[in-house]
Amino acid sequence: MQFGIFTVGDVTPDPTNGSVPSERERIKAMVAIALKAEEVGLDVFATGEHHNPPFVPSSPTTMLGYIAARTEKLILSTSTTLITTNDPVKIAEDYAMLQHLADGRVDLMLGRGNTGPVYPWFGQDIRQGINLAKENYALLRRLWREDVVDWEGTFRTPLQAFTSTPRPLDGVPPFVWHGSIRSPEIAEQAAFYGDGFFHNNIFWPADHTRRMVQLYRRRFAHHGHGRPEDAIVGLGGQVFMRKNSQDAVREFRPYFDNAPVYGHGPSLEDFTEQTPLTVGSPQQVIDRTLSFRETVGDYQRQLFLMDHAGLPLKTVLEQLDILGEEVVPVLRREFAKGRPADVPEAPTHASLRAVREVSAA
Amino acid sequence: MKLIVVSAGLSTPSSTRLLADRLAEAARDELAAQGQAPSTEVVELRELAGDIANRLVTGFPPPRLSAAIDAVTAADGLIVVTPVFAASYSGLFKSFFDVIDPDALSGKPVLIAATGGTARHSLVLEHAVRPLFAYLRAVVVPTALFAASEDWGSGGDEYTDGLPGRVRRAGVELAALMAARPVSEEPEDDITVLERQLADLRFD
Fold first, then answer.
1. What is the pTM for the complete model shown?
2. CATH number of B39's domain
């Protein structure tokens, strides 16, 4: 099972002192967080993609390429890559390029993005969001799998005898996750292709997560990719930890109360009860995360959101130390217990290359 | 058969809740006369005010609000009563229906009612409340019930029935629609619904 972190890349004022990082500081902080993730033994770093303030990561492969040069093992991913507003030709090129630079340590999570005004900045229309996700992804797959593509569709100019360069590393396209919170169509898309499904459950009750993952697993089997338990599932989570849970609650409360996404709504106590947010001791985080398996079955990837709500970099790095040293080693051990041997791991470049070599032989 | 009463009264006791109870009684009496014994549940929006606000900012309903939404969605008939605020339904009343799936009330018999300090507000039911439930594709009974302060202490006049007579008429109209409605089947589980929606979706 893979463990890692994902970041939205928001610039949020620290509510305890009003300080706001500059864009440069925030971008450098994201890099420092990624390097820390490798240092403390995590498997995955994923960056968001956004094209409007207060977010900074508009160019994920630039950032991931830089991180690739400074890491050895970390898998570089996205949360999410906008399959709606990006030209699939450019996605095919950018991520294949990144694969070569990162020696295959690349996968990506596709999402639609949900802000109407962003679409026209890239010549698109949010009302076509689902259709864009379908057509663009179908083209992206072909660009990675066929050396020469003739193509005609609705949303971009036709392609004639087009070759996307560079070709995917070792002829193995990056593994794709489809990220969704609410849309059953996206669970269906992931199931149809036998791709991974990442349910970003961080603001949603477990019952909703269960239904979405069940749907994906059932459709994965329906489309002939294996048993429901062979489907590749990822989940989010968000935590804040201190040795004593009271200290964690006291320190995190002002950040929670003022966070753009959940501030000024439910109490911290209600929100932690109803969503995966866990504020407490490392043991509480371990217990909560292990309970996700009861919701969705044995799964493949767990990503935590750690740099949220305006927390200062120093605090986030401390959190990553606790996550890497005290939480994830226990999670690896405990998740392995009772996990059937035939439940697959998340595909990596190496595992996909091995499959390709077997099928070619 | 389930009759659900939604009351947006804010005081305890409230005239809005009193009117809601009288309407429910009238509908139940009429259904009983036809041999039906509906279960009745009252949703007091005052108790859900914080939950409704939290649902608006988080996107998901806390458990108690979720139960209230499920009750309304599964109802065979609804009685909805709001106080008049600033020439319309109260914000709390509107917010509750804002967080319910727009299809949840399709085809459902609904009796609309309102309370206010003066009968000059009575057309609120026709220019605000009825269009809201028309948008939700509910079947709104012809008699909409407005109770002004003066109605609680007077009978009718030569043009209009008094409050008890109008309550009875509205209850009878709601009961007739509920009785004529086919017994609702057990709802499909969500996955089945999703799968059916997906059956038409083709990728590639």
1. 0.89
2. 3.40.50.360
